[in-house]
Specification:
It is built from 14 helices and ten strands. The protein has about 325 residues and is α/β, with parallel strands linked by helices. It has two domains: about 220 residues, Rossmann fold (3-Layer(aba) Sandwich); about 100 residues, Rossmann fold (3-Layer(aba) Sandwich). A six-stranded mixed β-sheet has the order 1-2-10-7-8-9, with helices on both faces. Strand 4, helix 5 and strand 5 form a beta-alpha-beta unit.
Length: about 325
């Protein structure tokens, strides 16, 4: 049975998360305002989750999940699969609550994601993501580890407590804009499994009900675009993109009704546009962001979103965990 997450769930999650981390910064981008040729007194803001202890937003949902399940877990371990950022998030949360964590990760994940996950104490088991659409190793290994270890399994996105935790970032955005006495016309955020966007959409829609909420995903992993067009969850059997954090096969079943209700549309971005955005963000703001973290900026820079209206624009930079060699390779584009 699908349980819907409410704004009250998100507010409750905020009390838990504030025990461990401060709000991620909302940074005004004067350069992007000029680039988009905005009229009037409109502003562009970047919500930068690269400032969290694990370098991504995933810590929010992981902390709330761990808090809500701590009693159930008891002395048992926690098992989860992750492309890398939830791995470090649940590892950090496990350290705070003194829980053993085991994570199933792609062997090709960025080295920095392995390093962060190990730094907070989690154990890692790897699989070959290039063949997972044939073998189903990710789900099988996660299931078998859960059974063998008598563990509690955590979902990186398809869970009400993860969604509510992620929504705390949206509360931060609303609070900051209200302090600045601003209105919001557009909110751009990544969609993969949907946990980040679902949580944020709940908070943004509550704080600024007239804002347009737009999902962004890679062209090679456009299951959400296809789902919106079909009116039902649609699976992509072999997603592909440099955006390693946005390669879920489909949107989570707990996320789908929230996204379908609150999002006006979704935009698919080719990898070359994401690479150009990574270069622009680095050259202009000095921020070294991973592809998954930059794709929403790519949607804005490439003109795929028309910013009609009079309010401000918020764009999510969801994470910064990228290896130096790959980053240099990806931004060597003109």
């Amino acid at each position: 049975m699908v349980q819907l997450v409410t704004i009250d769930d998100v507010r409750e999650a905020e009390r838990t998360i504030r025990k461990f981390i401060s709000p991620a910064p909302l940074i005004r981008s004067y350069a992007l305002e000029r680039k988009l040729s905005l009229h009037g007194n409109r502003r562009v803001w970047l919500k930068d989750y690269g400032w969290t202890p694990v370098g991504s937003f995933k810590l929010l949902g992981a902390l709330n999940w761990m808090a809500k399940n701590s009693e159930l877990i008891g002395d048992r371990p926690v098992v989860a699969h992750s492309s890398g950022n939830f791995a470090s998030g649940i590892s950090f949360a496990g350290k705070q609550y003194q829980k053993r964590v085991i994570v199933v990760m792609p062997e090709s994940a960025p080295k920095i994601k392995f390093q962060l996950t190990k730094a907070f104490g989690a154990e890692i088991v790897t699989y070959d993501i290039s063949r997972d659409h044939e073998t189903g190793d990710r789900e099988r290994m996660t299931r078998e580890l859960t059974e063998e270890q008598q563990a509690v399994q955590a979902s990186p996105y398809d869970d009400v407590n993860v969604i509510a935790g992620n929504g705390v970032g949206g509360l931060e955005i609303v609070a900051e804009l209200r302090r600045e006495e601003r209105e919001l016309s557009h909110f751009l955020c990544q969609v993969s499994g949907g946990g980040l966007m679902a949580g944020h959409a709940i908070s943004i829609a509550d704080g600024f009900p007239n804002a347009e909420i737009i999902g962004i995903e890679p062209e090679g992993a456009s299951d959400f675009c296809q789902s919106l067009a079909a009116g039902q969850r649609t699976r992509v059997d072999k997603p592909h993109s440099i955006c390693d954090g946005l390669l879920s096969y489909d949107v989570g079943r707990h996320n789908w009704p929230i996204l379908q209700k609150l999002l006006s549309r979704a935009v698919a971005v080719p990898d070359n546009e994401t690479r150009l955005a990574m270069k622009w963000l680095y050259d202009t703001h000095g921020l070294r962001s991973e592809p998954s973290g930059t794709i929403s900026i790519a949607a804005a820079l490439s003109g795929k979103v028309a910013f009609d209206g009079t309010g401000d624009i918020v764009i999510v930079v969801s994470g910064r965990n990228v290896d130096e060699d790959r980053f240099r390779e990806w931004i060597s584009i003109s």
